[in-house]
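Hi Prof. W.,

I finally got the Cytoplasmic tRNA 2-thiolation protein 2 prediction working! I wasn't sure whether to trim anything, so I left the full sequence exactly as given:
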Amino acid sequence: MVVQSLTNDLKNINKRKILIDVAKKLNCKFIFTPEISTDIASQLLSNVALGRGSHIPLDTGFCDTRDEHVTILRPLRVFDIKELALYNYFNNLEPVTIPENVKDAQKSVQSLIENFVTKLQSDFPATVTTVLKTGDKLGMSNDKTENYRICYICKGPISVSSQSLTSEKAIKVSQKISRESIQLTNGYMFDGVDESNKKTCFSCSNIEPFLIT
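And this is what came out:
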């Protein structure tokens, strides 16, 4: 499941890169993508599960402004499939569908969460809306200090701080304790985590070992 989850994550990153590259080639400043409410809710929960919680506003918000020349917009993010079906019906529109292979719900984190959200939408529609509203309340800091960097894989912002204890540092310390002995410094274990050469966000650091350089 781990490898497939990382593969899906990398596919999404590459898909975004391809869309932006094509948009630049065609001199387009905006890209409209077709994600609906269940897609956004699934992406939000997947981000949390994969360690991309800090990128939720970019991956699920109305605007993705990571690229300074091309902006990705998600105009359908608050609508569900029934609303779109009714809109198409009353306006005599024929939707374009692309056949997809049947996904194994147990094969990856993304498919597991997608299956969960789909059932949630079917049984408790209001819950998906609550997930979206919760995601909308999450914001990103605009304070670009010297510790502010950009992940070279997903182009998302990463914050390198040597002062505060973060969940990412806690995970890395736990990994160090499990794999090797570390020396305490000033009584704090997380001082042993070196982030001076950090080039990726937490999630992409798991993808990086599989990339061909």
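The first helix runs from residue 2 to 25. Does that look reasonable to you?

Thanks,
D.
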